[in-house]
Amino acid sequence: MNTHPPSADAADRPPADDTTASQPAATAQLQAQDSPLPNDGSATDAAHPSHIRSFVHRRGHITQGQRDALERLLEQWSIPYSPRLLDVTKAFGRQAPTILEIGFGMGETTEKIALSRPGDNFLGVEVFNAGVGSLLKRIEASAVPNIRIVQHDAVEVVRDMIAPDSLAGVHIYFPDPWPKKRHHKRRLIQPPFVKLLASRLAPGGYLHCATDWENYAEQMLEVLGAEPLLANTAKDYAPRPDYRPQTKFETRGLRLGHGVWDLIFKRVA
């Protein structure tokens, strides 16, 4: 079993500790610490006690450049969370296949894929200010026009804003592995969420997950394989497709003998 600290995900995410974070604030109220966007989820949690958050409350470092990007660019490139279906054509200013990326970290992979696939829309979901600010800086520097950001809990975004049978693809790269067994229930890839994701994929659309934790890869394979709306495109794990760039942290991990597992499933009905 792979027991090393995650190489690809943690390095591409805002540094954080396990202290409690404030709920998200408006751009004008940004503080030095990183924190998730606000989500008054108390009612939701009471009604849905099994609801799994796509993030953990944390505080971490946010740079001045990331704060500046949030203040200047967030309104232009972000979509506020709303418990109503998103008009994707209006949000992107065009009609095109839409790929949802959940937990884009610092945005390096999101930027590279969006640049290599200009015909697709990319909707990135992330809660942490540092990651959102980092991707906004990349959008500006690369002049990449086909990315939009929702800074909110991904489970609620998928449930409330994404229409059934609408997505061309979903990317979930290196989600928090929650390596301790007692924390496995906190992992994002669980049957209820996978069922929800599958329902939002259009027939023929794909769900692509990647992890550098073997135990989590095994769980992903089991959970995805049990969803009747999904079919594996490989016997078990898939080769890394050309469109997913290999990060420098992933390259270093592979050189040290650490594994990386890709899983690509397609919506079948």
TrEMBL record:
<feature type="binding site">
    <location>
        <position position="180"/>
    </location>
    <ligand>
        <name>substrate</name>
    </ligand>
</feature>
<feature type="binding site">
    <location>
        <position position="153"/>
    </location>
    <ligand>
        <name>S-adenosyl-L-methionine</name>
    </ligand>
</feature>
<dbReference type="InterPro" id="IPR055361">
    <property type="entry name" value="tRNA_methyltr_TrmB_bact"/>
</dbReference>
<feature type="binding site">
    <location>
        <position position="176"/>
    </location>
    <ligand>
        <name>S-adenosyl-L-methionine</name>
    </ligand>
</feature>
<dbReference type="Pfam" id="PF02390">
    <property type="entry name" value="Methyltransf_4"/>
</dbReference>
<dbReference type="InterPro" id="IPR029063">
    <property type="entry name" value="SAM-dependent_MTases_sf"/>
</dbReference>
<dbReference type="InterPro" id="IPR003358">
    <property type="entry name" value="tRNA_(Gua-N-7)_MeTrfase_Trmb"/>
</dbReference>
<keyword id="KW-0808">Transferase</keyword>
<dbReference type="GO" id="GO:0043527">
    <property type="term" value="C:tRNA methyltransferase complex"/>
</dbReference>
<feature type="binding site">
    <location>
        <position position="212"/>
    </location>
    <ligand>
        <name>substrate</name>
    </ligand>
</feature>
<feature type="region of interest" description="Disordered">
    <location>
        <begin position="1"/>
        <end position="47"/>
    </location>
</feature>
<comment type="function">
    <text>Catalyzes the formation of N(7)-methylguanine at position 46 (m7G46) in tRNA.</text>
</comment>
<keyword id="KW-0949">S-adenosyl-L-methionine</keyword>
<feature type="binding site">
    <location>
        <position position="126"/>
    </location>
    <ligand>
        <name>S-adenosyl-L-methionine</name>
    </ligand>
</feature>
<feature type="binding site">
    <location>
        <position position="101"/>
    </location>
    <ligand>
        <name>S-adenosyl-L-methionine</name>
    </ligand>
</feature>
<protein>
    <recommendedName>
        <fullName>tRNA (guanine-N(7)-)-methyltransferase</fullName>
        <ecNumber>2.1.1.33</ecNumber>
    </recommendedName>
</protein>
<feature type="binding site">
    <location>
        <begin position="247"/>
        <end position="250"/>
    </location>
    <ligand>
        <name>substrate</name>
    </ligand>
</feature>
<feature type="compositionally biased region" description="Polar residues">
    <location>
        <begin position="19"/>
        <end position="36"/>
    </location>
</feature>
<keyword id="KW-0489">Methyltransferase</keyword>
<dbReference type="GO" id="GO:0008176">
    <property type="term" value="F:tRNA (guanine(46)-N7)-methyltransferase activity"/>
</dbReference>
<comment type="similarity">
    <text>Belongs to the class I-like SAM-binding methyltransferase superfamily. TrmB family.</text>
</comment>
<keyword id="KW-0819">tRNA processing</keyword>
<comment type="pathway">
    <text>tRNA modification; N(7)-methylguanine-tRNA biosynthesis.</text>
</comment>
